[in-house]
Amino acid sequence: MLGATSGWRAVADRRILGLRAGSPPARRSRAREQGRPVEEVAVVVVGLVLAGVAALVHVYIFWLESVAWTTPRARAVFGTTPDEASATRALAYNQGFYNLFLAVAALLGVVLVAVGHRTVGLTLVLTGVGSMAAAALVLLLSDRSKAAAALKQGVVPLLAVVAVVVGLLV
Which residues cross the membrane (predicted)? Predict the structure, then answer.
């Protein structure tokens, strides 16, 4: 992966991995010198990709709840009638922004890791995706009929948390 990239992509790869330029073996030994095994870096990158996917899902949920709540599309997704959607519009609007803020935290964390601010970035990633996973768990525990929705919005963030934490512990 790293040896085949050039230009801005190679620079971004090196920053994400916390490495300097050089041949792949040199990069691996530098990673170890910096206290980061290559395996850790790879697992953290997987976690960052999953965090990005989870953030995009939550941006979509924001759009459904805060922008399109009363449309037939959003009503079909959430199983509401036109009257229910109208009655709950303000609540959904507010809830949508919660989802947007979680997505922003996760995406900002990914960007910060990519530009070299690893500690702050990973903190934001774990805060964002950890909160997404926790919210999905609350949804599941509060209403078992919402299990499918909880899984759709919670599995990817949970996998991101696991990947980042495992990558940090390797």
Answer: 41-63, 96-115, 122-141, 147-169
| Gap between the Cα atoms of 107 and 125, Å rounded | 7
Q: In angstroms, how far is the first alpha carbon of the chain from the final one? A: 21
d(CA 88, CA 140): 20
Question: What residue ranges in the chain does DSSP mark as E strands?
Answer: none
CA 21 vs. chain centroid, Å, equals 28
Q: 3-class SS at 13?
A: helix
Confidence of residue 38 (pLDDT cuts 50, 70, 90): low
Q: Are 129 and 157 in contact (CB under 8 A)?
A: yes
Q: Which of 50, 138, 147, 64 is nearest to 100 (CA)?
A: 64
Q: How far is 35 from 65, CA to CA, in rounded Å?
A: 44
13 pLDDT more than 60: no
What letter represents residue 75's amino acid? R
pLDDT score of 11? 55
Tell me how far apart the alpha carbons of residues 139 and 147 are, in angstroms, rounded to a whole number: 8
Positive or negative, the CA dihedral 53, 51, 127, 137 is: positive
